[in-house]
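hey
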């Protein structure tokens, strides 16, 4: 193995040991996932409400208007949750990097 090669097996074993020893690593990975799950559930309820309303309407013009009026709202929510998700992801990854740096300093 050359000096610049990375031992992937060692890295995976070390990462697994770190997660088992300190569940905080796992929590940092779950934080952005929880935000995305909340966003998807929220969108599910909004879209479900729109389609349940449209099934009650018989006039296709009214259904089209209902969907056209709400599509901008749905897109705005998707953008909002996308931005929130990116922020949570960046914070969680920064926390993970900080946590790894602190553990490296403590183990020296």
């Amino acid at each position: 193995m050359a000096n610049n090669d990375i031992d992937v097996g060692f890295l995976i074993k070390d990462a697994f040991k770190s997660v088992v020893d300190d569940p905080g690593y796992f929590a940092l990975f779950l934080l952005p996932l929880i935000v995305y799950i909340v966003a998807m559930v929220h969108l599910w309820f909004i879209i479900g409400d729109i389609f349940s309303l449209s099934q009650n309407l018989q006039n296709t013009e009214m259904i089209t208007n209902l969907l056209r009026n709400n599509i901008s709202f749905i897109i705005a929510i998707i953008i909002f949750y996308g931005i929130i998700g990116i922020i949570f992801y960046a914070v969680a990854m920064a926390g993970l990097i900080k946590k790894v740096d602190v553990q490296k300093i403590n183990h020296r």
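The chain has a mean pLDDT of 76. The chain has three helices and no strands.
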